[in-house]
């Protein structure tokens, strides 16, 4: 696995890099062709808290986890555990998706995220631009679960329209479709 580690307001030591590489190695058993996989690790410091964010864009989905702790090593451990739980929890869905991959288009859910701070108003504190990929509702639910979000925007492959899948309070899912 190719691992890129970047520190914000913090210098990444060799020991820290080795620790992250060792822990991410636990995920190799879940990934096919793990030598072609790239992991992006961002370590941020705010006060006495350390936030570790790991994003692994794969061909058909994105694994992402973020944890904040007082200790860097504890944050890494929790982040890796969360990623491993995501893969194990969704293993059945991932396998059925792999077996039913009859689509003629290439799935590449790598989001292009551009973050901007809105200076004119205090209401919008973050803005993201994402590339919306075609997929069906089941794939959108899987992607939302893997990212740990409450909603996920996608392009419905059947209707070719923008849609949002979201998690309802009763534990089920809802879909908002555009006209």
Question: How would you sum up this structure, described in words?
Answer:
- With 179 residues, the protein is of the alpha/beta class.
- It folds into 2 domains: 2-89, Ribosome hibernation promotion factor-like (Double Stranded RNA Binding Domain); 102-177, Sigma 54 modulation/S30EA ribosomal protein, C-terminal domain (SHC Adaptor Protein, 2-Layer Sandwich).
- It is built from 4 helices and 8 strands, in the order βαβββααβαβββ.
- It has helices spanning 14-24, 72-89, 91-99, 137-147, and strands at residues 2-8, 38-46, 49-57, 62-69, 134-135, 151-156, 162-167, 173-177.
- The chain has a 4-stranded mixed β-sheet with strand order 1-2-3-4. A 4-stranded mixed β-sheet has the order 5-6-7-8, covered by helices on one side.
Q: N-to-C terminal Cα separation, in Å?
A: 42 Å
Beta-strand residue fraction: 25-35%
Helix content: 25-40%
The CATH class of the largest domain turns out to be Alpha Beta
What is the CATH H-level superfamily of the largest domain? Ribosome hibernation promotion factor-like
Please tell me what the overall shape is: globular
Work out the radius of gyration: 18 Å
If helices are DSSP runs of H or I spanning 4 or more residues, what is the number of helices? 4
Class based on secondary structure composition and strand pairing:
alpha/beta
